[in-house]
Automatic annotation (TrEMBL):
A GO molecular-function descriptor: ATP binding
The ABC transporter domain, residue ranges: 7-244
Broad class of where this protein is predominantly found: membrane
Location in the cell: Cell membrane
Record protein name field: Iron complex transport system ATP-binding protein
Superkingdom of this protein's organism: Bacteria
GO CC annotation: plasma membrane
GO terms for biological process, alphabetical: iron ion transport
Species the sequence originates in: Paractinoplanes brasiliensis
Entries under Pfam families matching the protein: ABC_tran (PF00005)
Membrane topology classification: Peripheral membrane protein
InterPro entries documented for this protein: AAA+_ATPase, ABC_transporter-like_ATP-bd, ABC_transporter-like_CS, P-loop_NTPase, Siderophore_ABC-ATPase
Amino acid sequence: MTGDLALAGSELTLAYDGRTVVHGAGIELCRGQVVALVGPNGSGKSTLLRSLARLHAPQSGRVTLDGGDDAFALKPKDFARQVTLLTQSRPTPGGVRVKDVVAYGRHPYRARFGAGDADGHIHVAKAMRMTGVEAMAERAVDELSGGELQRVWLATCLAQDTGVVLLDEPTTFLDLRYQVEILDIVRELADDHQVAVGVVLHDLDQAAAVADRVVLMHSGVVRAAGTPADVLTAGLLSEVYGLRIEVNVGDDGHLHTRPIGRHTARVTI
Ligand SMILES: Nc1ncnc2c1ncn2[C@@H]1O[C@H](COP(=O)(O)OP(=O)(O)OP(=O)(O)O)[C@@H](O)[C@H]1O
């Protein structure tokens, strides 16, 4: 049901080689909702998202599914049927066709030697249609542009058909049209398929437009969490990003942010 808790991290402390970079962070992803993680470079967004996807074991704290199961205790395939992650960097396999990369998203449903998963081709076709990569199905992935490749990886995640979708900067490399289309897909997943979406975004206006809730990170700490109107305030953003940021409501009803750089002062001298 919409609003039911799907995936949560509580009191997560995360470190690399003994250096703590996320301090006691909490985050909740609910069905049918989009949560945007925002914050400056190095504030811990990706590390937190990777921990939710079980790719980074916490020093302390818990990641739970459906309000109970310890995510780290599940079998890999069981977890992969419930949660997928689009990471920032991925190796690009040489000579492999797009349709085969997308089909890889079905790995949690296949038995050994590729048996099972009778409906897999339906999910693969749907994911390719949603992301607009059908026309490149036969092309080798190492021949694609950065933006084309980004959409292929997103299709691979969607083919996994999970109730939780985690996306780390999914609009990077994309031209304006595809940025908008990816954000439309994000909303569609939540609204039409009751997916719980957690998405790292640098563009605060995109976060305001797509998210039901925003988690603002700063120096490894969740500085604020709530609705876009609660979190994307001039005061909080100016403090966290270390420069003056104005926030206005646009004609579209969404919040719009405007950083005020030093160049503004320079040209008026
Ligand atoms: N593999 C790693 N090994 C050691 N330290 C790392 C590693 N990955 C990230 N860090 C450090 O952890 C901290 C948080 O990084 P993280 O990538 O989670 O931040 P972020 O908010 O996602 O940043 P960005 O917006 O630049 O992607 C940073 O200080 C970073 O240098």
